[in-house]
Design brief:
Blueprint (H helix, E strand, L loop, with lengths): L2 E5 L7 H9 L2 E7 L2 H7 L6 E4 L6 H7 L4 E4 L7 H11 L4 E5 L6 H13 L5 E6 L2 E13 L5 E5 L6 E5 L17 E5 L4 E16 H6 L4
Parallel strand pairs: 1-2, 1-5, 2-3, 3-4, 5-6
Antiparallel strand pairs: 6-7, 7-11, 8-10, 8-11, 9-11
């Protein structure tokens, strides 16, 4: 299974996050345009830099000219993150972690959350943003956890029904339509949480450091 990291131009992660992922066999670092500026500051060498290259600093382009594969794509019908995902899929990557996809621009954050749903059936995705780990799910899911872990669930429409076991506030064929209902800060009561998700995709958000330190990622 080929796995990659996609680093965008939002709020950057700590270098330790990328190093942890690299130890977990996320073997390639793909930077979306200005994400390469952060890679340079973190002392990392991207395998690929992809985008329309309107955000990256000229000095960064020169620095990585002979170190990374730089691919300029001028098309404007997709974002730089989408360009990176399409490239990764074409290269045979089956899993990607998105970093730097949240930050000061709420529109960019919202767009990148939508991209997770848009590409759900094409590549397995996760987002790590500051203290949070977001993973989309559908179907039957078993989450390794521990009693007391905080787990939040978010749905988007009334077609998606969720049934859970192992949560303090159980869901029974429940819907979580966006803007109406959510399951924020639910709590695990056992060593695993079972979810049955039918009709669509939901987001599950957990604390990244907690998941990492307990060997759950």
């Amino acid at each position: 299974m080929k796995k990659c990291i996609i680093l965008a131009n939002g709020k950057p992660p700590k270098k330790s996050v990328i190093q942890f992922l690299q130890k977990k066999n996320y073997s390639a670092l793909i930077c979306a345009d200005g994400g390469a500026d952060y890679a340079r500051k973190l002392g990392l060498i991207p395998n690929y830099i992809i985008g329309d290259l309107d955000s990256i600093e000229d000095s960064t382009l020169k620095f990585f000219k002979h170190k990374s594969s730089i691919i300029k794509l001028k098309r404007q019908n997709d974002t730089d993150v989408e360009k990176c995902l399409k490239f990764a899929i074409n290269k045979g990557f089956s899993e990607a972690v998105l970093l730097g996809v949240t930050g000061n621009r709420l529109d960019h954050t919202f767009c990148n959350l939508g991209i997770v749903i848009k590409f759900f059936n094409k590549i397995k995705l996760k987002i790590i943003a500051e203290e949070s780990l977001l993973i989309p799910y559908k179907g039957d899911v078993v989450l390794k956890t521990f009693p007391g872990e905080i787990i939040s669930l978010y749905g988007f429409d009334r077609k998606t029904k969720i049934t859970s076991t192992g949560l303090k506030y159980p869901l029974k064929k429940s819907t979580l339509p966006f803007g109406e209902k959510e399951s924020t800060s639910n709590v695990s009561v056992s060593g695993k949480v079972n979810l049955k998700i039918h009709g669509g995709v939901i987001f599950v958000i957990r604390n990244f450091k907690t998941v990492k330190s307990n060997g759950l990622l």
